[in-house]
Amino acid sequence: MKELSLHLLDIVKNSTAAGATLVDISLTETADHTLTITVADNGRGMSPEMLAAVADPFTTTRTTRKVGLGIPLYRMAAEQTGGALKLESTEGVGTTVTAVFHLEHLDCPPLGDLPGAMATLIQGSPGADFRFSHSTALGSYCLDTREMRELLGPEVPLDAPEVFSWVTGYLQEQESAIHT
Ligand SMILES: Nc1ncnc2c1ncn2[C@@H]1O[C@H](COP(=O)(O)OP(=O)(O)OP(=O)(O)O)[C@@H](O)[C@H]1O
Ligand SMILES: [Mg+2]
C-alpha cells in the first residue's frame, strides 16, 4: 500500500510537468475522519477528450513509457476507502484534482512523510511556487514559497540544501502541532 504522501508527490509532479508556475496543495481533515486533498495548478490543463481519457491507465503524454498510472492509482486508493476522485481541467487555465479519503477505513494508506514529500517537491522545481496548507480538528498551518522567496532574497534559491532542511524541520513541527 503506497503512502498518501507518495501519491501526492505523483499528482503534484503532473502539475509541474504541465508547466505550472503555482501549485496549491491543501489537506483538510474533518472531525469525522474524512481527508480531502486538493491539488490545484495553473499549468497547461487538459482538453475535454484528454480529461475523459485520463482515468484510463493507458493514457499518457509520457514518451518514455506507454502507461500513465499516477491518476488511476490515486483514484483507486481513494475509492478503496469509500472516497472518490474528481478531476477538473481547462485547457490553458489549469487543473484541479480533488481526492477524498476515509481515514478510518481499513484500506486507507498512511499519510507517510508529508514534510519530506513537500521539501522534495520544492527542491525539485525551484522555479515554481507552492502553497501548502494542512488543517485538522486541532489546528492548521500554511507554507507559501512566495513568502519564503521574499524572506530569502535573490541570493538563496529554493533548491539550496539549507532551504530543504529548513522546510523539512518547519513542516515536521507544524505537523506535530496539528496531530495528537
Ligand atoms: N495537472 C495536470 N495538468 C495537465 N495535464 C495533466 C495533469 N495531470 C495529468 N495530466 C495528463 O494526464 C496524463 C496521465 O497522468 P498520470 O499521472 O496518470 O500518468 P503520467 O503522468 O503520464 O505517468 P506516471 O504518473 O505513471 O509517471 C499525463 O500524461 C498528462 O498528459
Ligand atoms: Mg503522473
Describe this entry's structure for a reader.
The model has no long low-confidence stretch (mean pLDDT 94). The protein has a single domain, classed as Heat Shock Protein 90, CATH 3.30.565. The chain has 180 residues and is of the alpha+beta class. Strand 3 and strand 4 (94-102) form a beta hairpin. It starts with a helix and ends with a helix. 32% of the residues are buried. Helix 1 (4-17) packs parallel to helix 4. The chain contains six helices and six strands, in the order αββααββαββαα. Helices cover 37% and strands 26% of the residues. It has a six-stranded mixed beta sheet. The protein binds adenosine-5'-triphosphate and magnesium ion. Magnesium ion is lined by residues 10, 13-14, 68, 70.
TL;DR of this structure?
By secondary structure, this protein is an alpha+beta fold.
